[in-house]
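Continuing from the previous page of notes. For each protein in this section, the sequence appears first, followed by its structure tokens. Read the first protein now.
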Amino acid sequence: MAEAEQPKRLAPEHRVTVDDVRQLMGASTPHFALQLRNRIAKLVRNLPDEDPARLLGLQEIARLERLGFTGETRGEQGQDGEVSLRSVQPDAPVRRVEGERSPLR
């Protein structure tokens, strides 16, 4: 997974749609969540605030940040007495580096 975008989506005449955002959302896993977040942010950053694609993109960015920082649990639960890793705890905070820019800028 790279942060490179399909050239058609970046063409000046291309109108970003909800379908463009949904195509990127479909492949989200913890491992690739932050790369997808950045691709969606790049795609919607110049859209008007009320644009449906931008609104969906902002919701997805928030979900991808949670997924990327807190992970997900699949398969069977651990054995009794095992503590889950911090990265898969649903209440783990989303961490940001102080002074780091928003992906929408």
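Done with the first. The second protein uses the same format. Note its length before scrolling.
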Amino acid sequence: MSAADNLAARLRGQSMIDDPFLGPVTAERFAAASPAWPQHGQWSGLKPGTVTSGQRRSVAEFDFIPADAAQPVLPVGIVWDETGVRAVARVYYNKQLAGASLPGSDVVRAPMVPPEPGLDLHPTMRRYADVLSRGDEQGLLEVLEPGLTVRGPLGVPIAADDVRAAFAAMIASGGGVPVMYVTCTDDGSRAALEFISWRTPPHAGLGVYERAPSGRIAAFRAYEGPVRRTSPADEPAG
């Protein structure tokens, strides 16, 4: 079986799938109507990325490869959640990248996951959340690893000679990013965090953060969008 076939089979086994366009739907409805169905004709295949596993929850990353080579790759993050009585999946991608002509592509995805009681973040992630929200440039430099890579929700890495310095300056210039983490899946070196960005209006997203041996964040990938920004900074929310 191909990677797309394997993913489709797992999606079919979910009691519910929450999609940026459709909201919570059955697997049958997701297969029929979501642009992120892996066997959709617009995709020639997909490239599996990392999988972050925790207790009864895992987060898988994929790049959906378009059949039309002129179209962009679609980064997709999927939260496989078995913490409740039913197996559910929450799918994250940028709606405008997936289908700018589709109805609702310009509508932000409202928060749909309540904060997990007693959410236990790795100390690096607690520190990052604090300095990110305050726009503390020096604090960000301290928690981010030299050689940092950042891939935004459009699948485009930040291009700069020093991505760490550029990212910290960008966040600081916008006055910080008002993010609340609501779930945490952490395998000891990587954290996949669902979040609410308290912009106007608030929106839901997923961030995946790789930690270096130093404990600092070495890579960040965002799955969200569209985003309504209340500041001029053009940064990924998480």
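What the second structure shows: The chain has two domains: 3-99, 123-223. Residues 230-234 have pLDDT under 50 and may be disordered. We return to this in next week's lecture.
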